[in-house]
Amino acid sequence: MLAASSTGEPPAKRLRSEEPTGGEVEISEKKNVVRSPLFWFQDGNIDIVAENAVVFRVHRGVLARHSTIFREMFEVPQPLGDEPPGVCPTVHVSDPPDDFASLLQVLYDGIQVFQLKKAVAFSTLAACLELSHKYDIEHICTEALDRMRTCLCHDFDTMNSSAQFNEVGHWKTVLLSSSSLQLTVATDAIRAVNLIRLVDEPTMQPVAFYLCSLLPIPIILSGTMLPNGRTAMLSPDDLVRCIEGRTNLVLRACKQSERLFIPIPSDQCSTRRQCIAFLQSKSSGHQKERDYRMDVHCVTFYGMGRAIPRSSDFSALCEVCFRGFLSRHVEEMRYIWENLPGDLGLKVSEWDAAPSQS
Ligand SMILES: [Zn+2]
């Protein structure tokens, strides 16, 4: 809800109107409010003060055109017009200023922000989704959800073809991206879960919780600091779900790596001894690494969405055995995908792990 719509209530810092009123007009007595460098139109006719920190001078007609909430607010007879010349009526909102700026950017410069083939940062998308949901701006909400679904899929083959994880590494560097969205697990995973709760989109829950499960327990418990200055926290129920699910997923990842390097070469293999030796050495290497891998189980979906390159690491494996390894890897991922909602204590009726019919 809007924090207030106190017309004529001055926003918080001493700001000076640029309208020619025969002198500078103070429109605020409060301190620490600054004028947005991005959205301050000379011909604006409404001041939006976000979090008592930043004031945006924009156009009532633009807000009302896109948002039913603002439209209805402006339709309510208000004692407007009492302001001194050059002073706009003011609306106070509780939203983080950076988030409100992101929403305005889409409203005013939509095509540049949501270019069809361009990936947007999750923080921008999240701000737009949260605020378009709050202010009932349907087209932005729809666009944001469509982009969320390109990374938070419910169908394995769609996920495998449209989204990809980056190289396995430290949890702070794990990215999930598609052609239209990029998520950084360290900063975005918890916010993604909360967004999905907000808009009630169960099909996106499993991947979002999976991303949370990649975080260390202390981060899951304490939350993550967002670019907008707030901290994203899981609800108590979701905390339990995430921590219990994390245990299940770690066990899945361990079993997965055991099965991946089963030292059985392909039927067409012509270098059986060499390939068996390679697979055995990989398998024993993973055994030794297991303690290390426990907290880096994003390996579960490593390679999803792209071909794993035949690096020099695999040069000792013949071509048919390498293809067999890749095939086992995809099937292992598909199996884990199939069990993902259950491992996370979720039920998603549309969840789909079956190979697409082609
Ligand atoms: Zn072979």
TrEMBL record:
A Pfam family this chain is assigned to: BTB
Domain BTB intervals: 44-110
PROSITE patterns, sorted: BTB
Disordered: annotated segments: 1-26
Record-linked InterPro entries: BTB/POZ_dom, SKP1/BTB/POZ_sf
Protein name: BTB domain-containing protein
Domain of life of the native organism: Eukaryota
Biological classification of the source: Eukaryota, Fungi, Dikarya, Basidiomycota, Agaricomycotina
